[in-house]
Hints:
Elements: H1 3-30, H2 38-46, H3 52-86, H4 98-112, H5 118-140, H6 149-173, H7 177-184, H8 193-212, H9 214-222, H10 224-229, H11 234-256, H12 262-274, H13 278-302, H14 311-328
Helix pairs in contact: 1-13, 2-3, 3-8, 3-9, 3-11, 3-12, 3-13, 4-5, 4-6, 4-7, 4-11, 5-6, 5-11, 6-7, 8-11, 9-13, 12-13
Amino acid sequence: MNDQPKRFSLVLKFIIGLFVLIGSFLIAMILGAADTTVKEVWLSLTSRVTTDTIVMLQEIRLPREIAAIFVGAALSVSGAIMQGLTRNPLADPGLLGLTAGANAALAVTLAFIPAANYFGIMIACFVGAGVGALMVFGIGMMKKGGFSPLRIVLAGAAVSAFLYAFSEGIGIYFKISKDVSMWTAGGIIGTTWSQLQIIVPFIVGGIVIALALSRQLTILSLNEEVAVGLGQKITQIKAILFVVIILLAGASVALVGNLAFIGLMVPHIVRAIVGTDYRAILPMSAVLGASFMLIADTLGRTINAPYETPVAAIIAIMGLPFFLIIVRKGGKAFS
Length: 335
């Protein structure tokens, strides 16, 4: 009986989160360099009318905002999984080498396989994300007690700096700096329906697998010995969740470039709302991460319209103080 009010409270919070997501989406569709009306947005979603404004909404703004939804959800869920697996409150795909590795792989692909299609670039990003994460955790494990939050973050900073420098070097040497920077600017300008058709299934699949393993992740986040005692196959679970993190981070970089801090901020905020059970944290992280990304993209399009402010810069401005607060509070500022 005691679980009933708690469950109702969680459902209510999730419904409120969905309303925030819907509101953020509508605001993102309405506002921009070319402001539109609610009626035009509705027609762009429901009719075949072909006025200039509606075509703009259907072919430019709508795929862009759908990309924002899925990238925000992917980065937030991957950050939550990383924080649960490592029990490290500072874990984030952008801070632990995944996005830097994906970016380096992207630069190598553009340099050596210029004819690679979007699917090939995405696979390269998956591989790069995995290599970046392995480098960080490999350095972290070189010394006893290496999985301390500080050591992992320092290793992530060092590996990320190296991989970003490597990407810049590839870009300069092969004269593709402009192409690489277009990807690494952290924006969703020019997202197309064909790109979404390739990327979205990977993100959806990764999130579904994560949700299916959310109970096991909750146990792992508390104590590995308890998980073993309860009969959990922790090696297999960790391996699957690690692959999910690579899928989500790699797909995000392939679509929008490097975006740090979303995977750090959103799970902390979510834990303050729903508690420490990952069966609630993961779906709420997906919803609030999508909302956060929509709001950031809307700000990027409207702060200095008709010019665009890079969404990566907006997220970094919000994320850096958040990061410093978490460091100061030992990871418990929002948990």
